[in-house]
Design a protein that fits this description.
- It comes from Kitasatospora acidiphila.
- It holds the Pfam family LacI.
- GO terms for molecular function: DNA-binding transcription factor activity; transcription cis-regulatory region binding.
- InterPro entries: HTH_LacI (IPR000843), LacI/GalR-like_sensor (IPR046335), Lambda_DNA-bd_dom_sf (IPR010982), Peripla_BP_I (IPR028082).
- By secondary structure, this protein is an alpha/beta fold.
- It has 3 domains: about 10-55, Orthogonal Bundle (434 Repressor (Amino-terminal Domain)); about 65-160 and about 295-315, Rossmann fold; about 165-290, 3-Layer(aba) Sandwich (Rossmann fold).
- About 40% of the residues lie in helices and about 15% in strands.
- The chain is built from 12 helices and 11 strands.
- It has a 6-stranded mixed β-sheet, sandwiched between helices. The chain has a 5-stranded parallel β-sheet with strand order 2-1-3-4-5, sandwiched between helices.
- The longest helix has 16 residues, at about 80-95.
Length: about 325
């Protein structure tokens, strides 16, 4: 009849369209498909059928039946950090395959992370690039996967790491191959594991070189980096190559160089880390170490889904990093 609301699609409708049982539909949307040997092809067929029908599982009902919310929390240090946008892209792509919705937030400490997991607000936590202090109070029973974090501080939780040491070594080797022997270094002042690894790798790779090092507060963005970079580039013995702890810092150095009338790379070669979108848009495009953020997110949420299904995720080798040589570096 005209004016009669359309019937809301049900799990039975999805099962019929996908050619599977209602139990299979429930497993897919509860995140339990992997533990019950539902193939990837079948799971994707269910998700495609649900999408075409506009089906959305009843979150409240599912929580009552399974004691779960169907939601995962992605905790990042800084929502404005562009690298974490890459991580979120990968998390969301993979989460849909496991019937999970993702909430992202920053500024969480150990107590609030633990509270989020133990009050059924979230089924599990995905914690990216944490400061060690954020992990100290997490109960051992909390379903959590750590990304770009110190395995020694993880308390037994699964971790997914990046091969930061290889990326940093490749960056330093590129500069030395170009003849640079005095290198500027704009490093993060943050104490997170990811920056400790970068610094240790840099010190190993740069042994025997002259290094002019300055610290930058990354959370303050390119404006803070611009101020520090201006100080570095104004020195009478300024370096002709600078390695930055991320691409946002490198963009601040670009601004500082322009302020001082210096050309990149003719007067100063620049390398960043992360390979966020801004890196290719700078003039000239920035040489940078690509950290596979999307793969980091996908691998992490897949491990969390396995945990929620009662499985122990298999250990993952550090994800490879790649030096992308663009036009911001040249010979000394």
């Amino acid at each position: 009849m005209p004016g009669t609301p359309a019937r809301r699609p049900t799990g039975r409708d999805v099962a019929q369209l996908a050619g599977v049982s209602q139990a299979t539909v429930s497993l897919v949307f509860s995140g339990g498909a992997a533990g019950h040997r539902v193939s990837d092809a079948t799971r994707q067929r269910v998700l495609d059928a649900a999408r075409s029908l506009g089906y959305r599982p009843q979150a409240a009902g599912r929580q009552l039946r399974l004691g779960r919310s169907g939601m995962a929390l992605l905790a990042v240090p800084n929502l404005q950090g562009p690298f974490f946008g890459r991580v979120l892209t990968g998390v969301e792509e993979e989460a849909a395959r496991h019937g999970l919705a993702v909430v992202v937030s920053s500024g969480w400490n150990a107590a609030t992370l633990a509270e989020a997991a133990t009050t059924s607000r979230f089924d599990g936590l995905l914690i990216c690039s944490p400061d060690d202090s954020q992990l100290g109070e997490l109960p051992p029973s909390t379903p959590a996967v750590l990304l770009d974090a110190d395995p020694a501080a993880a308390g037994g939780a699964p971790t997914v790491e990046l091969d930061l040491a290889a990326g940093m070594a490749a960056a330093v080797a590129h500069l030395t191959a170009l003849g640079h022997r005095r290198i500027g270094r704009l490093r993060s002042s943050l104490s997170a594991h990811t920056f400790r690894v970068r610094q240790a790798a840099f010190e190993r790779a740069a042994a025997g070189l002259e290094v002019l090092e300055y610290q930058v507060e990354l959370n303050l963005g390119e404006s803070a980096a611009r101020i520090v970079a201006t100080e570095l580039l104004s020195r009478p013995d300024r370096p002709h190559a600078v390695l930055c702890d991320d691409d946002v810092v490198a963009s601040g150095l670009y601004q500082a160089a322009a302020d001082l009338g210096l050309r990149i790379p003719a007067d100063v070669s620049v390398i960043g880390i992360d390979n966020v979108s801004i890196a290719a848009l700078l003039t000239p495009p920035l040489t940078t170490v690509d950290l596979p953020g999307e793969q980091l997110g996908r691998t992490g949420i897949a491990a969390l889904a396995a945990l929620l299904s009662g499985e122990q995720p298999k250990p993952v080798a550090p994800l490879p990093t790649t030096l992308l040589v663009r036009a911001s570096t040249t010979g000394a």
